[in-house]
Design brief:
Keywords: Signal. Belongs to the polysaccharide lyase 1 family. By secondary structure, the chain is mainly β. The chain has one helix spanning 41-45; strands at 22-26, 51-55. It has a domain at 18-57. The chain contains one helix and two strands, in the order βαβ. The longest helix has 5 residues, at 41-45. It is elongated. 0% of the residues are buried.
């Protein structure tokens, strides 16, 4: 999957796009601003450093 970075075009061409980042899998569609539960999208976006954020399956995430 990380080879997708080599295909970047447009305004992202030439960026690293998190190429050296770890994979983070969102497994829980719940969003709770008061609790950064691992496995949620909110937890993923609060991490430092580059990440490849993927989703375990089809889910609808209603942000608070």
């Amino acid at each position: 999957m990380k080879k997708l970075v080599d295909c970047a075009s447009g305004f992202v061409h030439g960026t690293t796009c998190g190429n050296d980042g770890e994979f983070y899998v969102v497994t829980d569609p719940i969003d709770n601003a008061a609790s950064l539960k691992p496995g949620t999208l909110r937890h993923a976006v609060t991490q430092t450093g580059p990440l490849w954020i993927t989703f375990k399956g089809s889910m609808t995430i209603k942000l608070e």
